[in-house]
Prior knowledge:
Blueprint: H1 12-21, H2 29-36, H3 50-64, E1 70-74, E2 78-82, E3 86-91, H4 97-109, E4 123-125, E5 128-134, H5 144-155, H6 179-185, H7 192-205, E6 216-218, E7 227-230, E8 233-236, E9 243-245, H8 248-260, H9 267-275, H10 283-303, H11 308-321
Antiparallel strand pairs: 1-2, 2-3, 3-5, 4-5, 6-9, 7-8
Helix pairs in contact: 1-2, 5-9, 6-10, 7-10, 7-11, 8-9, 8-10, 10-11
Amino acid sequence: MSTHGCGPWATTAQRRWRSRSATSSTPDAASTRASMSDDLPYVIQPPADAGLAAAAAAEAAARWGLPSPQHLRTGMNALFATGEEVILRVCHPTAPASQALWLADRLRERGLRVPRFVRPAALEAHGLTVFAVERLHPVGEIDWREVGSMIRSVHEWPAFEVRGRYPLPRCDSFPWWDAAAALTDVSDLLDDPARAGLEAAIGQHGGWRQRVAARVVCHGDVHPGNVLQTADGAVLLDWDLTCHGPAAWDHATVMTWPRRWGGEPTMYTRFAEGYGASLEGDALAESLATMRNVVATLMRVRAGRTDPAAAAEAQRRLRYWRGDTDAPQWTAQ
């Protein structure tokens, strides 16, 4: 349920980055991205041109002596398989590639299981960055206790050790979390009952920022799509939204997944056991869980303007906000 992406409610910092990133193929690209790394998460938008992403992957595969890349999927990153052992990750980062390599090394030093980069440096091609990452293969069900334990280690990592070495924006600065602006943007696509339900949720939970008392280093997007169970144990994927926020930020999605996304009923219980504390019932965590669902719904509604599949999923989600007691579980897209 990655809820990030550029939209008409983008902040000034995001617009400034998009303007600067137009020069990303120039020799100054790395320094430009470095100057923005305190403003934004590591990745905030997908590669704009699928053809250029494929060309960048092909160039990287040729340079590194890898098999011809086969496109797997594109979200915020375009992923290409090159055989059974390597994935090429093509992205448009806001900070230098070296920072992602640094983060992976430090996380492993802290005992976390994360994907390994299989080349010591990234390749820059066609204004995009290409990483070669080990291809992982799923084995069995996710061990959520292990995930909770790893997230606890992330939260105990002093922020000063990360800041300046990898983007660590405040989570409340994410532009796509301006729920009021997002609601206004898609108001013409909503019926009155759906709009009223969303407005009520925002009214009750939208003031969560004023209740944040302490901040920790957060993964930023913990959910089943970003965890892979391997023969060696659970692996935490996708650190693009690493941020500085309340511990509840990383609990909220796991809390809401069984409620609205069809997750295994005990996944949060097991996550909390591994973490060492449950935030279920905590006012801030519950507000964040609700607001994550609000944001996820509004982004599907917006995407539905041009994407029929997104429009269909948006209608599934809106049934819940209308108060439909038979509202179906949601599907992550």
